[in-house]
Amino acid sequence: MAIETQPEKAEHSGGGGPGGPPAARPWWMRPAIHTAILGAVLGYFLGHWLGNFVASGYQQVVEGDENNFAIVFGYLAATAGFLAGLGVFNDLLRQMVGLPPRDHDDGGGSGLARYFRFTLDHKVVGIQYLVGMIIYFCTAGLFAMAIRTELLSPSYHLFNAGAYIEIVGEHGTMMMMLMSSLVLGPFGNYLVPIMIGSKRVAFPRMEALSFWLTPCAFLILLSGLLFGGFPFGWTGYAPLSIQATQGADSYAVAFGLMGISIILAGFNMVCTIICYRAPGMRWSRLPIFVWSMLTTALLMVLAAPVLVGGMYMMLTDRTVQTAFFVPDLGGSSYLYENLFWFFGHPEVYILALPGFGIVSEIIPVFTRKPLFGYKVSAAGMFGVAILSFFVWQHHLFDSGMDPDMRPLFMITTELISIPTGFIYLVALGTFWKARFRFSVPMLFALGMYFNFLIGGISGVMLSDVPADTTAHGSFFVMAHFHYTIMGGLVFAFMAGLYYWLPKMTGIRLNLRLGKIQFWTMFVFFNSTFLPMFAIGEAGQPRRVFEYAANLQTLNDWSSISSFLLGGSILLFVINFIWSTVFARVREEGNPWRSRGLEWQIPSPPPPDNFEHIPVVLSDPYRYGFKDAGPVADLYPPAGVISGALTGSGA
Ligand code: HEM
Ligand SMILES: [Cu+2]
How many helices (H) and strands (E) does the chain have? Predict the structure, then answer.
């Protein structure tokens, strides 16, 4: 086992010394959020100037009235400046000139300030992700509210057609790119090391960088609105994306940066899970949530590079006139579609698998039964992950593919429902003859299973070529994937949050408000999206703000429900802020009586997670066993593990 690699704390605290260094510098050189913002602003102007300087003679710049070069350089230099200001490159530079690393003061600093830093503490990164994700989700949600407001009337318009598609693009892209890390970011980074009995992650700098790229991607995407937005939704199809005006650069740069973030986060997660398991944490004892993180992370590492490549090509097409995706000049817009979906389909499992991981982890606790078919579930996750690379053309049934290829992709797509079914049925097996405890996390988990069933079955329908060629591009597809992502992933995220927040912060969310939030969210989610199946079947196309007058009643129903759904999310935000900032009800023990390793240590966990590296004795699902011993020995005899592993230094 790889535990020898664990005592990196020595490097942490011994090397540069965690206290002190920042104070030795003038305030404008101290790596923190203010220097990062300064770096971003300086970077933007420098990049913009450089772009103008380099490209001012280009034919398309002389003839056209805009210089994409300048804005792309501006974005990239702003990102680099932001990261430099945070101190991301400091250790690297110091090590290049032979100095020990020093710019990480995790453990040392306390209070709010450390959440605004580049930190090597995986628990701080987890909380940073958590707050970031909530902000991104709510922002993208506000765009959804704007969409539904516009769709209240078939012909009276709040926005013009161009503004509508801009809003749809911002909503869809922001959701799809940032929600990739909705679970792996906060829960994966925070909890996986603890769940596998480790004091740290494999690559803390990579992990921290993966987080700090997310606000960059978020702000760059939003800034697209200042430049006229982008008119092609979240998919960025060529040739429109090559022809579109400056706002489109924000799409490509932001999505590309987020792709890099996903690769880094995934890579760190894979290595952590493979190399940092405590002694006794055999593969057959790995919590199912950790399996879901492993498969998700593998998908991230394998799929996201294709996205980054595609975005890079889009950018060079837009700036230096390569023509990868321009048919007139020998390129192919169909190539873009294939690159995009070769990433895009695994992406939907990057969104779905973590949801299943959370709910599968939670239901044994609330049914007091072992997870039925644990190995089947883990195998199902791998099956889904592998198959997801063989189905991407089901998005292109209608896009001029060779008709003879359709049956192949129809079959692979239908096949994927088998491993998905495994994961799903494992839960139903666990429910069998169980006595349920309907606490808030369990309610959200059950809601997830209900919603995902509808999302999944409509997905099998869509994988069918005749059904898809009719429903393609309609609100039926909208309803389908919102059922899987909003109904699946976001419900599971809520379950995880109510379940693990006491672990992560030592503070409990208000459970009465939680119940109200669950019921409003569940009812109004379904009431928002169920009508969309009918609206789509009746022929309303997506991304169009005008529709047939006879569909107004259904659309109004959906819109009003969506406002109430938005209200339920607001209720959550209020609960979150009120509980964590004002009420602060302590929850230090093991409120759900879970056997998970993460619950065997204090809440919130101490800086090093474990005083000693634990020795894992069993899987965490032995509920209802009379003779079930402890899951781990937290104080193994000194001889078992070298005493060198115990130093904390913090
Ligand atoms: C409050 C909940 C939400 C509501 C009310 C909502 C509503 C909508 C509506 C009405 C559209 C269709 C607009 C059109 O094509 O004319 C849409 C598109 C979309 N939504 Fe959502 N949405 C919600 C949450 C989410 C979530 C959680 C995700 C994913 C994480 C998501 C991802 C997308 C995507 C990818 C599109 C397609 C954009 C495009 O066509 O390029 N939405 N949403
Ligand atoms: Cu797909």
Answer: 21, 2
